[in-house]
Amino acid sequence: MEYKARYITEDIKLSSYEDKFFKSDIMFDQHMLVWFLSGETKIVQADSTYFFGKGDIFLIPRNQLATIINYPKDGHPHKTVVMHLSEERLRNFYANRTIKPKTLQSHKIYSFNNHPLLESCLASLIPYFDMKNIPEDIASIKITEAISILRTLDNEIDGVLTNFEEPGKIDLVDYMEKNFMFNLPMEKFGYLTGRSLTTFKRDFKKAFSMTPQRWLTQKRLELAHYQLTEKKKKPLDVCYEVGFENLSHFSFAFKKHFGFAPSYLINKGVSH
């Protein structure tokens, strides 16, 4: 995979993936505003799947789990302008505004299609990627402009952007049952459920009577079997959507668990 990135500042970058595709399981530490220049992205969350392409603009709130699969399209690389809305900048922006933070009950991605105001704001960044010695206040001005436009377009955004709370301790079983397909370090799962790594492992063993890694592998393979037999999906697509990093590892684990390779289900068209 050939990845290229050019930065105006650490909060604003032009990102490009030249290879066939790129897949990653991510927990976003900051809100991200993304504008597509070319290519496609598939974003898989626990309860939703999104597709974005050229011209689309969307906001991914912080502390959300997602599988991101980036593709080139029509001979063009996957290329985006990405703006990070950091906690520091948001606190400064809202310092003199009285806003009630919103408790996030759902993991929602906010789509703005190709709204002209946001597109104009983000398009104005393009020339700066080829310049050196950018004035320090440029990024601040552009991010402030973007936040102001977001507030105009969606009355929920203030509540989302002003929620600076860290994840609290939540029901471990419910959370893991909904998010097992995301291949994250155990420390991240612990953080998102409001636990230290040690407490997470202890509570997990108590709840599931096995180690997290063993349980995660079993759950992912069971979901993969369902996707292959009931949804008639391709092994390659299933592999990435259920939390495996590559097809060979997925095929090996699947055969070890079920006694036959994923391709057997596709070739025979039967369920076991």
Radius of gyration: 21 Å
Tell me how many strands there are. 10
Major sheet characteristics: 6 strands, antiparallel
SSE arrangement, N to C:
EEEEEEEEEHEHHHHHHHHHH
**What does the overall shape look like?**
globular
Would you give the CATH topology of the largest domain? Jelly Rolls
Instruction: Figure out the total of helices.
Output: 11
Low-confidence segments, given as residue ranges, are none
* CATH architecture identity of the largest domain: Sandwich
> What class, by secondary structure content?
alpha+beta
**Helical content band:** 40-55%
Report the top-level CATH class of the largest domain. Answer: Mainly Beta
Quote the distance from N terminus to C terminus. 36 Å
Percent strand = 15-25%
The main sheet orders its strands as 1-2-9-4-7-10
GO molecular function, one term: sequence-specific DNA binding
InterPro entries: ExsA-like_N, HTH_AraC
Domain HTH araC/xylS-type: 170-268
Pfam families: ExsA_N, HTH_18
Structure description:
Keywords: DNA-binding. This is AraC family transcriptional regulator. InterPro entries: ExsA-like_N, HTH_AraC. GO terms for molecular function: DNA-binding transcription factor activity; sequence-specific DNA binding. Residues 170-268 form the HTH araC/xylS-type domain. The structure is a single chain. The chain is of the alpha+beta class and 272 residues long. The protein has two domains: 3-161, Jelly Rolls, CATH 2.60.120.810; 172-268, Homeodomain-like (Arc Repressor Mutant, subunit A, Orthogonal Bundle). It has helices at residues 87-94, 116-123, 137-153, 157-161, 172-179, 186-192, 197-208, 212-229, 235-241, 247-258, 262-268; strands at 3-9, 12-17, 22-27, 31-38, 40-44, 49-53, 57-60, 65-71, 78-85, 110-111. Strand 1 (3-9) and strand 2 form a beta hairpin. Helix 2 (116-123) runs antiparallel to helix 3, helix 6 (186-192) crosses helix 7 (197-208) and helix 8 (212-229) crosses helix 10 (247-258). The protein is globular, with a radius of gyration of 21 Å. The chain starts with a strand and ends with a helix.
